Amino acid sequence: MLKDALPKIVTPLPGPKAREIIQRRAEAVPGSIKCAYPCVIARGEGAMVEDVDGNVLLDWVGGVGVLNIGYSHPELVAAVKEQSEKYFHAMMNIMTHEGYIKLAEKLNAIVPVKGTKRKTMFVNSGAEADENAVKIAKSYTKRPNIIVFSGAFHGRTLLASTMTSKKAYSAGIGPYPDGVYRAEFPYLYRAPGCYTEAEAIQYYIEKLERVFEEASPAEYVAAIVVEPVQGEGGFVPAPFEWIRAVRKICDEHGILLIADEVQTGFARSGKMFVSNYWAEFGCAPDIIATAKSIAGGVPLSAVTARAEIFDGVKDGIIGGTYGGNALACASALKVIEIIERDKLCDRSLDIAEKCKKAFLSWKDKYEAVGDVRGIGCMMGIEFVTDKKSKAPNAGLVAAIVVEAAKNGLIIESAGVYGNVIRFLSPLVVTDAQLEAGLSILEAAIKACV
């Protein structure tokens, strides 16, 4: 079966069938929607993909964190099929459907936001979840401004693009919405000077507090929005001690703390959410936005907050036609059931242990491997020209991505400088596939350094 297969290249990528389809893509699809991989999928199972030319590839991108339970899980297929035979859609503003309620109840039970009584709403994408989280915070607090961070990625809609740090994602689409202010994220590997970790965290807290002086007084800030592990920013985890300090600042000033768990959620971190770790530190967020792996590839996202916050939102502010679509809700309920039943949080930690051991050995072995970091199974390897200067080496990463794909491994770059390889393998990857992927990746590093 494909889900148990190992990578196998039968014709150089792209093969003849793939070349034909990629050419059609160039004619029919905007070129600004980039694709770095000369691969056209025919089918996928588990962590494996077969392309239209019969090549079998191991996917360590998983739709950029969408496929935590893998491709084509048979129980997920059955759940969506069963729902499709009843009805596809019922808009919640017009007619209640029970799947929406069941899923909201489940998320209210497992999403670790501050407060015991919780409510959840659904939309369709991570950007929509982030935008609605901000609207909810503003409507509840009656405040106009938010604070986001360097390295942040929150989506490509107008507000989400404004919140996103890297302006290559939104060049030429301004003017941008007002009231979005940026602080420096605690990127400890690139902290200035010779700080200890504690000193660096204090430095970044002071940079955050300076926003109140230089951009928006605290009493006008509705929310601080944080990715628990920055995705596009380079898989940079927010230190727990820094989060504790941010939570304290929010509590002192009546500011809501929003966790953007679009990419980090649903077992990726070794817990259902990184915010579970935050809660253990006594600093649970007020609002959590989730998406990506929530429904195994069916478009869905969610915003969860304590009931008091949602009850303070004006009528008409939130909602949408497809939010909480019946097929998506059926899929999400099954995804969560599989994650809990099959102990994929534990599996995430098991995978992380194996990969971290290999990645750290590469850090010792190769001058170009500058840093290895992450939380659970959401890990990044940062490549540099040399360890002393830490100069970003984006060219090397681009070459490694191409070389790995030639040999049957799909990986993706990330980072402010494009010099990080991110690890987002489906959590159903087998040990044999994991070892094969590690071998291909190290061989690619050796070939390119």
Essential attributes:
Aspartate Aminotransferase, domain 1, 17 strands, 449 residues, 2 domains, alpha/beta, pyridoxal phosphate binding, 39% helix
Label the CATH architecture of the largest domain.
3-Layer(aba) Sandwich
CATH topology of the largest domain: Aspartate Aminotransferase, domain 2
Label the structural class.
alpha/beta
Q: What is the CATH domain class of the largest domain?
A: Alpha Beta
How much helix, percentage-wise, in residues?
Answer: 25-40%
List the strand order in the largest sheet.
Answer: 4-12-11-10-7-5-6
Give me the Rg, rounded: 22 Å
What is the beta-strand fraction? 15-25%
**Mean of the pLDDT scores?**
96
Largest sheet: 7 strands, mixed
Number of helices: 14
Instruction: Detail the poorly predicted runs.
Output: none
CATH superfamily of the largest domain: Type I PLP-dependent aspartate aminotransferase-like (Major domain)
Count of discrete structural domains: 2
Through-space gap between termini: 35 Å
Structural overview:
This is (S)-3-amino-2-methylpropionate transaminase. The chain has 449 residues and is of the alpha/beta class. The chain folds into 2 domains: 2-59 and 344-448, Aspartate Aminotransferase, domain 1 (Alpha-Beta Complex); 79-341, Type I PLP-dependent aspartate aminotransferase-like (Major domain) (Aspartate Aminotransferase, domain 2, 3-Layer(aba) Sandwich), CATH 3.40.640. It is built from 14 helices and 17 strands. The chain has helices at 16-28, 62-65, 74-84, 98-110, 126-141, 158-163, 197-214, 240-253, 274-280, 307-311, 326-341, 344-365, 394-406, 431-448; strands spanning 41-45, 48-51, 56-59, 118-123, 145-149, 180-183, 221-226, 229-230, 236-237, 256-261, 287-290, 301-306, 369-375, 378-383, 409-410, 412-414, 420-423. The strands form 4 sheets. Strands 4-12-11-10-7-5-6 form a 7-stranded mixed beta sheet, with helices on both faces. Strand 16 and strand 17 form a beta hairpin. The protein is globular. 49% of the residues are buried. The model has no long low-confidence stretch (mean pLDDT 96).
